[in-house]
Automatic annotation (TrEMBL):
tRNA-binding is among the record's keywords: no
Region (Disordered): 12-38
Membrane association type: Multi-pass membrane protein
GO cellular component, one term: membrane
Main location: membrane
Transmembrane segments: 55-78, 84-109, 130-154, 174-194, 206-227, 247-264, 285-307, 336-363, 384-406, 412-434, 454-473, 485-504
Organism the protein comes from: Amniculicola lignicola CBS 123094
Keywords assigned by UniProt, alphabetized: Membrane, Transmembrane, Transmembrane helix, Transport
UniProt protein name: Amino acid transporter
Subcellular location: Membrane
GO molecular function term, any single one: transmembrane transporter activity
Regions of compositional bias (Basic and acidic residues) in chain numbering: 12-34
One Pfam family from the record: AA_permease_2
PANTHER family hit by this protein: AMINO-ACID PERMEASE BAT1 (PTHR45649), GABA TRANSPORTER (EUROFUNG)-RELATED (PTHR45649:SF5)
Amino acid sequence: MGIHEMNDLKETANLDEVEHGSHGSGPRDEKDNSHPYGGASTTAGLERYINLSSVVNFGVVILGSWESFALTFQFALLNGGPSSMFYGAILVTFGVCSVGFSLAELAAIDPTVGAQYRWSANLAPSHPRFWGLIQGWITIAAWCFACAGPPSILANLVSSLAMFNYPEYVVKRWHTSLIMIATMIFPLLFNLYFRKVLDTFEITGGILHIVLFIVFIVVLVVFGPRSDPSFVFDTLTSDLSGWNNEGVSWGLGLLTVSFSVAGFDSILHMSEEVKKVRTRVPRSIIAACTVNCAMLLVFVLVILFYMGPTEELLMYPLPLIYVLYGATGSKAGTNAMIALTAVVLFLAFFNAIASVSRLIWVFARDKGLPFHKFFGHVHPTLKLPLNALFLICGVVTLLALIYMASATAFNALVSLQALALHVSYFLPILFMFLRRIRGDPPTYGPFKLGKLGVPVNLFALCYLFYICLWMPFPQILPVTKDTFNYSGPIFGAVIIAALADWFISGKTRFQMPVTRYE
């Protein structure tokens, strides 16, 4: 299993720099004036300029898996504990890589901004436009709410640092809301000049992602208090959250680990701007999955061995601060390490809103959204889907204001992202798997799974099903309005909205050009 490069671009008619035409017109060279989805000229589309270094760093940085886990691992301490964190990280590594490799193969076949919804439509055994529209709604909803994740984590980080340095400080909900809105301003402004800052941001993010990882590992191993191996490998926590069933606790603890590596499809939604897209986008997906999973597994092992007594850590909203302070004994050093971690999250958020704005733009261009003409517009000077970009920022701002009124309502909406994202991966892999076992696969691109395709797809489907099984469960018992897990009902509401859109106007409005892969 590997990435097969095109050795002679002339003989393959620039295969890396083309994507399938939407009306069955065959490959389209990037110099061609026809729109990749038919109809419009390049003045209404985007330009290809993202190089190999940027596209690989983009995928690696946007996950920021070890950083995400470091800032949220306290939730796994309540359910499952060390056993769920360590063995869960092993399961997640194999599961995420199987999903990532499956999506990379599809990206090599049809590298498109629409990704999941276009693949589902083109591979579905029947009713392709229906599956395309439903999948589009699921993916759009997942990513819109996912964009509120980095600002909320950054807000928690800033307020936790304030409490760490000024113990008398008391966090108010409106403080958190304002911090969330503030963290969005600079990523928005930088996205307006996306092309000019992209290389600098991606290189900076990639370097920080690796260098900080090494620094954290060295600091914890050299200065941290070492735990007994039995604590790391044999401790299963099932009595802190109200759940008394060890299997349920282990499954719920797994979600914290799996959440850290969700979102590797983000680079797919930048496909319109990537040079040599059919090889470089699959590379980015594979690099994002393998690199982040490997770093996550190592970090989980180290944090379990050197984080110190867990009873005290559960008292704080951001235990990582006190793990570092306990190891270094230095407030200045702790502040610096946490602040640099925030920079990586800031760059990941920059990447996220860039990716999601392209996804909204292309779905609107295929008339999958209401007001599709407005959101499908590309600014002629900036060459950016400006209206889609402002929609994302508007959604995040609205969620921040909702948090000011009700933390429960905010958590209810944001909880949708993980479930919807995993479902968005499930459908295209399922349809590809069915094509494989029927002996009717599409023409493969430069990266293919070959004989491993069936087992890899099957394992990916089983992994996604198992993860989605636990996502609607409440994390804490007894269930109240504040502890209820709203991801299931919110996801159901998205499906109902998508079905209503289909029957009201979507089946006539949605004009995604479906090309059966030959």
